Amino acid sequence: MISWSTTDIAGIEFGDTHITAARLHQRKAGSYLITHAGWVDYDPAGSLREKAEAIKALWRHSKMPTRTVCAALRSGSLAVRPFSVPAMSGSELSAVLGLKAEEALQLPRQDLVVEWHLNGGPDLIKMGALMTGIFAAAPLKDIEAELEWLRAADLDPVILDIRALAIANLRAAFNGTDAEDYPLCLVNISPHSADIILQHAPGVIYPHTVYCRASTWDESPGFLVENIRDVMRYGEYKLGWHSSGRVVMAGQISKGSRLPEEIHERLEQEVQVWEPWEECLETSRAVDKVLSRQGISNGILLPALGLALRRK
């Protein structure tokens, strides 16, 4: 049985171009120290052996002291959908969402893995209220393949998460339940994809991932803006949420990029760039050396940091 309060967990993400990993230590003052971190480039279409070797190299270079990991699932077939159902038991909800997952992916239930997040938490079942949230479904073969990569690298995966949820988890960890921070639209930039996450209230979220049409987002700001606008409209008209009126950008935003300004000008809304190491993140000397040596935006670490915070 895992003791989540004491287990030493690292977060690992198979990104668009790199595998990233990070380990955090929470200090009494509420801040976090990044004790170990790093990344290596890899081929997402590479063989199991190539991916395992890349992970092993990352663990060596970062001197990661733990092999217990929370990983982000990388699957082109991953489906994330909102749901709204009458209050029901956990087993009934599992059956209902299983049917929805079959419809979304056109696969039989035995070939799928389905998990869900309840807006407002599990107490809704006891309250008898309408249950709303999001469910995530992926082919079982994709789950098994990623677990095989991790185990081939001598790692012990205890949680598989979704990158967008890891980013939302990271933001929530630093901003807590401050009502003034909600609602907002959090946009995490990766080289060839972006997570657009509506955070209506603490624990009330809707994530959507979009893939870049051009070689970089700087070359395709209009397409990104279209998707941010569509997600905001979906939240307003389909989910009944108030428009956020504020966009918070994070992730791999290149130095000198005009992307935040482009989004501000096209959406005519406030746009902030979120860099958590300026707020609640500190780095060890070893991590400082890694970050200065590798020469890539620190934002590449955000998903791994969010994953490293998972304890249940």
Structural class: alpha/beta
Q: How much of the sequence is in beta strands? A: 25-35%
User: Helix segment count?
Assistant: 9
Distance between the termini: 12 Å
- Order of strands, main sheet, comes to 8-4-1-2-3-14
- What oligomeric state do these chains adopt? single chain
**What Rg, in angstroms, do the CA atoms define?**
19 Å
Helix content: 25-40%
Task: Name the overall outline.
Answer: globular
- The sequence of SSEs as H and E is EEEHEEHEHEHEHEEEHEHEEHH
Largest sheet: 6 strands, mixed
| Low-confidence runs of at least 5 consecutive residues | 1-6
Number of strands: 14
User: Mean pLDDT score, rounded?
Assistant: 88
Considering the chains and any ligands shown, give keywords for the structure.
alpha/beta; 14 strands; disordered N terminus; 312 residues
Write the layout of secondary structure elements.
Elements: E1 10-14, E2 18-26, E3 32-41, H1 48-62, E4 68-72, E5 79-85, H2 90-105, E6 112-118, H3 124-127, E7 131-139, H4 140-152, E8 156-161, H5 163-175, E9 184-189, E10 193-201, E11 204-211, H6 221-238, E12 246-251, H7 259-267, E13 270-273, E14 281-283, H8 285-294, H9 302-308
Parallel strand pairs: 1-4, 3-14, 4-8, 9-12, 12-13
Antiparallel strand pairs: 1-2, 2-3, 5-7, 6-7, 9-10, 10-11
Describe this structure in words.
By secondary structure, the protein is α/β, with parallel strands linked by helices. Helix content is 34%, strand content 30%. The protein has nine helices and 14 strands. The protein has a six-stranded mixed sheet. A five-stranded mixed sheet has the order 11-10-9-12-13, sandwiched between helices. A hairpin with a 3-residue loop joins strand 1 and strand 2. Helix 5 packs across helix 9. The chain is globular.
